[in-house]
Amino acid sequence: MKAKFQPLSLEGVKASSIKGRKSLVSVHGFARPIPTQSSFRNFLHSLPDFLAAKDFRETVGRIGKAHHNGKPVILGMGAHPIKVGLSPLIVRLMERGILQAVAMNGAGIIHDFEIAFAGKTSEEVSSQIGRGDFGMAEETGQMVNEAINEHKTQVLGAKYNLESGRVTWH
User: Fold this and answer.
1) By the number of CB atoms within 10 A of the CB, which of 5, 68, 130, 143 ranks highest?
2) Is residue 67 predicted with pLDDT exceeding 80?
3) Cβ atoms 46, 31 nearer than 8 A
4) Is 160 helix (H, G, I), strand (E, B) or coil?
């Protein structure tokens, strides 16, 4: 049987030495291990200074500067921080007055409810969407909508007091 496709021609392809090539990552910038029970500051300084780690360090620095200068810090996020279990960290940042507000999409509410109600969340989209049962958990739809309807005229949530630096829950 004759092959359907011919091998790709490598004519004109040139290799060059990695030694002369500009690279984004080098072992000189790798993260460094830190001792057990180290501070967050030590952890932050141990991170590499490139790619996402650099972005993370810069973001943490900007949040710290805003907080230090008495500026409000508002976290705008999708559902992934909740899905991967970061809610306790977000709550801690609010309790400490570092975050004054959290804005999220509807998926955040769904994942937060499902984790609180069932201790699990996040469906396998590709296997369920074709069957028509993606996003169709009975308890989620029913109970979230009941809560919305029951409390739709009330203002619920957390408030940050700039003078006291404290979060109060309503």
Assistant:
1) 143
2) yes
3) yes
4) strand
Q: Which tokens in the block code for residue 149?
A: 């309807």
Burial class (CB in 10 A: 0-12, 13-18, 19+), 66: middle
Q: How many whole angstroms separate alpha carbon 165 and alpha carbon 160?
A: 7
Rounded Cα–Cα distance for residues 25 and 5 (Å): 37
Q: What is the pLDDT of residue 25?
A: 80
Quote the CA–CA distance of 119 and 138 in Å, as a whole number: 15
pTM over 0.90: no
Residue type, position 9, single letter? S
Token pair 């570092």 in the structure block, residue: 98
- First-to-last CA distance in the chain? 74
Measured distance CA(57)–CA(42) in Å, rounded: 12
